Amino acid sequence: MLIFDADDTLWENNILFERVIDDFLEWLAHPSLAKAELRPILDDIERANIVTVGYGSKALLRNLHDTFEHLYERKVTAAESKEIEELAVTLIDHRVELIEGVPETLAELSTRHTMLMLTKGDREEQQRKIDASGLAHHFRSIHIVPEKDPATYRKLAAELSLDVATTWMIGNSPKSDILSARAAGMRAVFIPNVHTWVLEEEELDPSDEGVLHLERFTDLLKHF
């Protein structure tokens, strides 16, 4: 059983968010703080807001608004709010850029393995990206969840009667894809993406034999 993450594993995602954030920090034109000093403030606000606003483009817009109000100590005007939304238009359009080799690799893997997709975020937004990707037919089932923690993996395993010892979670996020799946007893494949969100970064144990480290998505064919 192979379970695949979606964002930044099957298609590029965070790089789009990073471009919006970079444009936003330029637009802020803060009088005393440089861009490098502004980013940790935004990161802290995103971290604090995850529980209430979740993930995705709507969450990012909320976080950008909150960052503005925190820095300037006033409400965002209607005109400023419109400008912020215009910065994020590429996210709102939900354009999908598949990672190299993904369609061909999934097509071959599906001939010899049962495959699922497990992705977190806003349900409607994630479904639009899945539809646009054209990849849904490779998976026996697709699961969109608000969070990917150990409890999520245990619940999925129970609902689908998965043998966790022979189930592999494949993804780019150390926190959500690798460590959470390992905590639930599954094995994992870590395929790093240079644009992985900073809040998803965690240290992986290099001695953990339950984690397979690969350089690129197409390398899956060498092992599965």
Descriptive labels:
224 residues; alpha/beta; six-stranded parallel sheet; two-stranded antiparallel ribbon; 9 helices; 8 strands; 46% helix
Please report the total strand number as a whole number: 8
Q: How many strands, what sense, and barrel or not for the largest sheet?
A: 6 strands, parallel
Amino-to-carboxy terminus distance: 10 Å
- Helicity, as a percent range: 40-55%
Regions with little confidence, pLDDT below 50 for 5+ residues: none
Which percent range describes the beta-strand content? 5-15%
Q: Would you list the SSEs in sequence order as H and E? A: EEHHHHHEHEHEHEHEE
Backbone shape: elongated
- Backbone CA Rg: 19 Å
Write up what this structure looks like.
By secondary structure, this protein is α/β, with parallel strands linked by helices. The protein has helices at 14-28, 35-53, 57-72, 78-87, 89-92, 102-109, 123-133, 150-160, 174-183; strands at 2-4, 11-12, 97-98, 115-120, 141-145, 168-171, 187-190, 211-213. The strands form two sheets. The chain has a six-stranded parallel sheet with strand order 5-4-1-6-7-8, sandwiched between helices. Strands 2-3 form a two-stranded antiparallel ribbon. Strand 6, helix 9 and strand 7 (187-190) form a beta-alpha-beta unit. The relative contact order is 0.17.
Quick rundown:
The protein has about 220 residues and is an alpha/beta fold.
Please outline the helices and strands:
Blueprint: E1 2-4, E2 11-12, H1 14-28, H2 35-53, H3 57-72, H4 78-87, H5 89-92, E3 97-98, H6 102-109, E4 115-120, H7 123-133, E5 141-145, H8 150-160, E6 168-171, H9 174-183, E7 187-190, E8 211-213
Parallel strand pairs: 1-4, 1-6, 4-5, 6-7, 7-8
Antiparallel strand pairs: 2-3
